[in-house]
Specification:
By secondary structure, the protein is α/β, with parallel strands linked by helices. It is built from 13 helices and 17 strands. It has 3 domains: 116 residues, Molybdenum Cofactor Biosythetic Enzyme, Chain A, CATH 3.40.980.10; 67 residues, Alpha-Beta Plaits (2-Layer Sandwich), CATH 3.30.70.260; 153 residues, CinA-like (Maf protein, Alpha-Beta Complex), CATH 3.90.950.20. The strands form 4 sheets. It has a 6-stranded mixed β-sheet, with helices on both faces. Strands 14-13-15-16-17 form a 5-stranded mixed β-sheet, with helices on both faces. A hairpin with a 2-residue loop joins strand 7 and strand 8. The two termini are 36 Å apart. The model has no long low-confidence stretch (mean pLDDT 95).
Length: 363
């Protein structure tokens, strides 16, 4: 069964923060989204697109504005050979089975259509579609994609589940598990954790998982960021409960702040440069020293598109992960545009955090 999302209305297309909020809300109810489409109010291709989607088994969420809500109702009534009726001061297809606070659910053959009337700056009406798909997630660390596939595929066959794999960064493979008709996802996950001891985390959201683990053990984290510009902090603070474990972050682009805020030695900055193992090592030490945290992460690099050199090209990033009794600092060569390099830096830093205390995070 497909899962599709349609945004209908110019205002929705222009408002990217609101659009991201809507997609997050939908993902909380659907296990996955197969496609997201955008249509302006006067787009003549909308009717044909709706007609094609409803010919296949699907779960369809349509986000509308005040001006497009009625238009969608008319189009759905035409496609489903229905007529519109007035309910709660809204014109909606008569076969709509559930109506709740600006959201209605319509069933057509094997498809479910959920239409939501969205207002920018306001809470989204409830997503009424429930996804009964038997899907789960695990994350495998410190293994290559090919080896993860080779190790887990035989297990997948034994427990009748389907696997989809993607390598987020080197040594971090995200695995989506979908149970087939007689599949046993719980047994598959248990066997995978047994096979890959201290390498598997069964969670859909790694940031939320880390927050839960740190909170349970009453430990905290702090960061020192340069080229990532606060992206590492956002990775965690975008999650509920972050305040219980997150001490704070120092974003030090300028060398003066690296020296004054993090106590990075000026000699190290002059001799090795801000993008170096020596400096990022001192950054993580400084972040730990100015906080009450048990763990600190530091990132310094060249995200581009300019600023690179022959010895330190764009994509060169140093990351340091530190606990009270251990430290690991490493150089990486990421590729892509500025934002993708920043995002890879964050993911690699998170992976290094997990590895700095494997007993805590993988138990």
């Amino acid at each position: 069964m497909r899962r599709d999302v349609l945004f209908v209305g110019n205002r929705l297309i222009l408002n990217e923060p609101f659009e991201r909020y809507v997609v997050r809300s939908i993902k909380e109810k659907l296990s996955a989204i197969d496609s997201i489409s955008y249509f302006e109010e006067s787009d003549k291709g909308l009717f044909l697109h709706l007609e094609q989607l409803l010919k296949i088994e699907s779960k369809l969420v349509i986000i509308t504005t005040k001006s497009t809500f009625t238009i969608i109702g008319k189009l759905l009534s035409t496609v489903t050979a229905d007529n519109q009726v007035l309910k709660d001061n809204m014109l909606i297809p008569s076969r709509a089975s559930i109506l709740e606070n600006g959201s209605y659910l319509l069933t057509h053959h094997s498809s479910e259509i959920n239409v939501l009337l969205a207002h920018e700056g306001k809470t989204l009406p409830p997503v009424l579609i429930d996804d009964e798909s038997k899907s789960g997630w695990i994350h495998v660390f410190n293994e290559e994609l090919s080896s993860v596939s080779a190790l887990l595929e035989p297990l997948a066959q034994n427990f009748d589940v389907k696997l989809e794999l993607s390598e987020l960064v080197e040594g971090w493979v995200k695995v989506k598990i979908t149970a087939r008709k007689h599949g046993n996802m719980a047994q598959f996950i248990a066997s995978a954790k047994g096979l890959l001891h201290h390498k598997v985390i069964a969670a859909s959201n790694i940031a939320a998982y880390i927050i839960e683990k740190l909170s349970k053990h009453e430990k905290k984290i702090s960061f020192a960021e340069s080229c990532s510009g606060g992206s590492l902090a956002y990775f965690f603070t975008s999650q509920n409960g972050a305040s219980s474990v997150y001490e704070g972050s120092l974003i030090t682009y300028d060398n003066i702040l690296k020296a004054n805020w993090l106590a990075v030695e000026e000699e190290s900055l002059e001799t090795h440069g801000a993008v170096s193992a020596d400096v990022v090592n001192q950054m993580s030490e400084g972040a730990l020293n100015v906080s009450y945290a048990a763990f600190a992460l530091a990132i310094s690099g060249i995200a581009g598109p300019t600023g690179g050199s022959e010895t330190k090209p764009v994509g060169t990033v140093y990351i340091s992960a530190r606990s009270q009794n251990s430290v690991h600092t490493e150089r990486f060569a990421f590729e892509g545009d500025r934002n993708y390099i920043q995002e890879q830096s964050v993911l690699m830093a998170v992976k290094m955090l997990l590895n700095i205390d494997r007993e805590l995070f993988f138990s």
